[in-house]
Amino acid sequence: MPSDAPASRDNDSAPQSRSPSPAGSESLTLRALVSTKDAGVIIGKAGKNVAELREQTGVKAGVSKVIPGVHERVLTVTGSVEGVAKAYALIVSQLVSANPSSPVMSPTSSPTTAIRLLISHNLMGSVIGRSGLKIKAIQDSSGARMVASKDMLPQSTERIVEVQGSSESIGRAIEEIGRCLLEDWERGVGTVLFHPGAGEERSGRRTHPTSRRSNGDVRRSSPSPGSPSSPPTNLRTQNISIPSDMVGCIIGRNGTKITEIRRLSGSKISIAKEPHDETGERMFTIVGTPEANEKALFLLYNQLESEKERRVGRDQQQQEELQD
Length: 324
Fold this sequence. Notes:
Distance between the termini: 48 Å
Oligomer: single chain
Largest sheet: 6 strands, antiparallel
Order of helices and strands: HEEHHEEHEHHEEHEHEHHEEH
Strand order of the largest sheet: 3-4-2-5-7-6
Number of strands: 11
Number of helices: 11
Radius of gyration: 21 Å
Helix content: 40-55%
Structural class: alpha+beta
Shape: globular
């Protein structure tokens, strides 16, 4: 597929941490993870397909740029709930037509395929619902099947929700999902967006703005002797949920890890003493400048990823010892 296909400006210039509905209650931004091959189909020759999609649905749509060696790209669609749902239904239909052998064919129904939506970890409860009732209702009403991943994607606070079915049923499911996301959009504030290849050059790129920020902040936070200290005026408060069994690894022995994250980021971080709902997750409240909060989120989720890898390695070692 052509590597010079137009990419979404929204995707490249957007901040790393944002609400899924930054423009208010009428506008929805919904991202999906697509293969490089499928991205080429979505864009079309010289951008023809994506231009037609925008014209037919009234949405803004684009695909992230190609990263050498990375085989996935991010599709971003922004518009009304109905427009976004219609756009995804048309995209799925395009992909089915372009890959007739890849969908699972059912003898009694339309061809079925799947789309992998990127949903903020903090908004998963809005989609799944208490005891899974909401996701079951969406599946029943749309005819699509939905599978929510348990883990967050690397260096992000997003998870995948795979929606499987015909283009019509996927469109219906996405409309329902979109309404859930808009109802609770405030919970998505502070989402650290996933970028394919984030573990490589992306992670380096994302840390540079925060290092520049620390130099710029010295001027404000170190007033001349005798002058009153004036804190930054652009402070933001962000809440994230952390699984209870992971809280200890973030705090560290005698609080060493969380103290280091506070020091490196410049944000104030407080931790709820009790779980905030039936999921058993604890709420972390981060207060600081947008740049400082971004750094804090990056460090928190790096720590989570390291702990997950450590636990996986430990479990594998225990299994090997049992087999011996």
